[in-house]
Design a protein that fits this description.
mainly alpha, 17 helices, globular, disordered N terminus
Length: about 450
């Protein structure tokens, strides 16, 4: 099993390991667990660590990386099987009303505390990735009609839920309460959520067209809804001088720097965003690069802003830092992309395991003094405006995970100035792998 985050020193990672796509596939393999329902899924990290759950957002990004490996002919059969197993889990876990939630236990039970409406889109992405992987390996005929029929039915229910319950036909956008960030900063009409759904609808529509089972009516329904949403996204997010990270529930423009400004790039939406894609990505990279540690922060670290949730102290998140590397490689700036990957590698442990995010001793101590000890962090984490109606047992469990994580960070501060959170994080290794594959494509 992967190591925890309590080593006494930071070691330089062997570059040959981190530069080898199969190394990251090995790490991901170690984090895949058989489900007690159908399929198997990667957990976010070591199940004894901060995140002992399966997160749809993380898994969609991981299956994207596995699909990239399939298309690059790197362990194609094994990666295809992982994606298919994840899709089977998602088919089992989906609610009758079409929803997928924030996170799941290995038996497929809902363990989410936030609404995180974007997870419906991530579920669709996972199903689409499975179809694409089967098609790329000429294996569609091996899964039988029941799988294809299950995908069609799941897609129909999910898209109906998004259109009927989440889409605001007056704003022409999907509305959400939380998503990639847990907190009010994600409430309203966000760039991230709307890009997720445009991408998911495009992917699942194409996936259904590949399946041999009849799905024309569902495809037509998706196409009509997608066209409406795409028109709303293009107008709302490209007409301002700067791409906004969101519109508030009241429609106020929010242009604060945020890592979600990479979303148009990450979801390959240049046809909708044109030059605005590059404006957004470059503004995020410039504003959010950590001047002390390096890497990309989630947002600006003004802790008195109730929207801003620091999670142990502000600092770079390495999965998002890998997005920056992907962007540089995709736009031909190979030197800068390599520099970004080197920053990530610098903070891996001696086994090459990449943490979720970093902070410094001073920032962590300030977080504990200003937010944890005062209860402000609790108020942000469990804000009633964004919580689902869940048992307090879930909240108590999450508090326990948070307390243990912060105790671990406190131990780390005795030996080092830069401390690491949740390692290895499967999502980080998936994004590093995607960055390597993007670089290979740019160099070809």
């Amino acid at each position: 099993m992967p190591n925890h985050t309590t080593e006494n020193a930071i070691h330089d990672s062997p570059t040959t390991d981190l530069d080898d796509p199969t190394f990251h596939l090995d790490v991901l393999d170690d984090l895949v667990y058989p489900a007690d329902c159908d399929g198997s899924v990667p957990l976010a990290s070591d199940p004894d660590d901060r995140y002992p759950y399966a997160y749809p957002r993380d898994i969609a990004c991981i299956t994207k990386a596995w699909l990239g490996a399939v298309e690059a002919d790197i362990r194609p059969d094994r990666c295809k099987q992982h994606i298919l197993d994840a899709a089977r889990f998602f088919l089992d876990a989906q609610e009758e009303g079409g929803q997928w939630r924030q996170r799941y236990a290995l038996d497929g039970t809902d363990r989410g505390i936030y609404r995180q409406e974007d997870n419906v889109g991530h579920g669709l992405r996972v199903l689409a990735h499975a179809v694409f992987a089967l098609d790329a390996t000429d294996a569609l005929a091996t899964v039988g009609a029941s799988f294809g029929e299950g995908v069609i039915d799941a897609a129909a229910r999910a898209v109906s839920h998004v259109r009927d319950d989440l889409f605001d036909p007056n704003a022409h956008l999907v509305e959400s309460t939380t998503s990639i960030h847990e907190g009010r900063i994600e409430s309203g009409y966000t760039l991230w959520v709307n890009c997720v759904f445009v991408s998911a609808l495009r992917d699942i529509e194409r996936a259904l067209s590949i399946l041999p089972e009849e799905s024309a009516a569902v495809e037509d329904d998706i196409h009509r809804f997608r066209s409406h949403l795409e028109g709303g996204v293009k107008r709302a997010f490209t007409s301002p001088a700067q791409v906004p990270r969101r519109y508030s529930p009241e429609g106020d423009l929010d242009t604060r720097p945020d890592v979600t400004l990479f979303a148009p790039f990450y979801f390959d939406l240049e046809d909708l965003f044109d030059d605005a894609l590059h404006e957004a990505a470059n503004r995020s990279a410039t504003a959010l690069e950590d001047p002390e540690i390096g890497g990309i922060q989630r947002f600006m670290g003004f802790y008195r802003d109730f929207d801003v949730h620091q999670h142990g102290g502000n600092g770079p998140w390495l999965q998002y830092t890998a997005w920056h590397a992907q962007y540089r490689f995709a736009t031909g700036d190979l030197d800068r992309g390599n520099d970004v990957l080197a920053t990530i590698a610098r903070y891996a442990n001696e086994e090459g395991h990449i943490p979720e995010h970093l902070t410094t001793r001073r920032r962590f101590e300030a977080f504990m003094e200003n937010e944890w000890d005062t209860g402000l962090d609790y108020e942000k984490e469990f804000d009633e405006d964004v919580l689902r109606d869940v048992s307090f047992d879930f909240i108590a469990e999450e508090l326990g995970h948070m307390r243990e994580a912060y105790r671990d960070l406190e131990v780390q501060t005795k030996d080092r100035d830069v401390v690491r959170f949740a390692m290895p994080l499967a999502w980080c290794h998936a994004e590093y792998l995607t960055a390597l594959l993007t670089r290979d494509a740019a160099e070809a």
